[in-house]
Specification:
With 308 residues, this protein is α/β, with parallel strands linked by helices. The protein folds into 2 domains: 153 residues, Rossmann fold (3-Layer(aba) Sandwich), CATH 3.40.50.620; 138 residues, HUPs (Rossmann fold). It starts with a strand and ends with a strand.
Amino acid sequence: MTDVLAKTDSDNTDPTVQGSGIVVGIDGSPGSQHALRWAAARTARFGPVTPVVAWHYPWWAVPTGMPGGPPAPSAQEFADQAKAEGEQALAAIDPALPAALVVAEGTAGHCLVDTGRNAALIVVGTRGRGAMADAVLGSVSSHVVRHATVPVAVIPEHVAAEDDTRRVVVGVDGSPNAVAALAWAMRYTPAGATLEAVHAWTYHLSTYPDAATLSVELFEEEAKASLARTVEEATAQATAAGAPVHDVVSRLEYGDPRTVLMDAADGADLMVLGSRGHEGVAHLLVGSVTTSLVHKPVVATVVVPSGH
């Protein structure tokens, strides 16, 4: 196990994540340890694990300048503390885990986005209560989901860490981002697992000037055609990337996207979402829905960024 000391504004990214690999945020909390277990079980598909522990010089450690006051602790003390916590977390998972610990100065969210910019996947837990005060879902996971240029997996503590994926649900809405999310799922869903593309649709007359002439059936047919196009385009993208064609079960469901996807995720091992969606009945994959599903994930959830 080696240590890399890095700043978030540098190019000193660990070489194990260049073009592949899994970057995992750890802070000593049970949630981050479970995320590390989940990642370590999937190295065969995504590459080696690179754990990242972040630190910063806290405001309360700055000297007050009062005569006779205690000297301020050095920055190295906080870096060493973060390194020790990271090594303890790794040892608790598997002392033999071949992982290069990255100790990065900065906020946890920025450090993960920077270190993982060339990774195949960034993995975060849903709770953080370690030494890093900002290592919590709201500040870290949401920041990484918003700013990462690679897919981000948010792992709740209650999901199984073992790599036994049997059912994957992908939320789609006809947008290019939904196509990218489904193509990603086609590439990484194991052979033999069920892959479902779920399109939620609703009947919003107020958005059309000639509402009285439009029927519910017309909206449903439009959604059905959109779902078929999404599957076709995602299949083409996955094939172009060299992935084997994975059969997709298409599901058209009426209702609010959040409710539809939460129901669809019942019994699933993974949910995949695009980061943004702006077409049709859309707002399926825009901030409100993705944020809601990621903030309180019912299953392991991967968000594929726009343009990935």
